[in-house]
Amino acid sequence: MEKQNTNKYFQKQEISKPIGKLLHKAGLITEKEVEEILQYQRSNCHLRFGEIAVMWRITNQETVDFFVDLFPLLITDSHKKTVGEYLKLAKLLNEKQIYSILVEQSKTNLRFGEVAVQKGWLRQETIDFVLQYIKGEFTPTVES
Questions:
Q1: In a domain, 96, yes or no
Q2: CB atoms within 10 A of CB 44
Q3: Cβ-proximal residues to 26 (8 Å cutoff; 6+ apart), any chain
Q4: Whole-angstrom distance, CA of residue 63 vs CA of residue 88
Q5: Residue range of the domain that includes 33
Q6: In-domain check, residue 128
Q7: Which end of the chain is flanked by fewer CB atoms within 10 Å, N or C?
Q8: pLDDT per 10-residue tile (average), the chain, 144 residues
Q9: Residue 144 belongs to some domain of the structure
């Protein structure tokens, strides 16, 4: 029963998280970058947060699209994917990187995320974010 209440708490907390906060929580954008984009957006109301982040090359369009469009749909999918599959869908890792991680993982017995972080391809916050979702600790819904 405790787990159910915890999940409801996280769902309520994450139900209307703006894309900037979600990208920040995932370790893909800094708090300062969020603030700067929001300040810029005030005088450029016609631009969405994700458009500015892409225009400023903070992230890419595929990653924004993943977090706005695809990730909220995936949270309802009872068939969870591997960490690598989510990171590939978000265009945070490519096939070669995933293969490299899997090869090194088999030699070192490190976890997938540990290898990705060691190689400098991802930040620990990004791995933690995806793992929280996979474990069902929260279900983010994005305000675009």
A1: yes
A2: 13
A3: 67, 125, 126, 129, 130
A4: 10
A5: 2-139
A6: yes
A7: N
A8: 43 59 91 96 94 95 87 70 88 96 94 96 91 69 52
A9: no
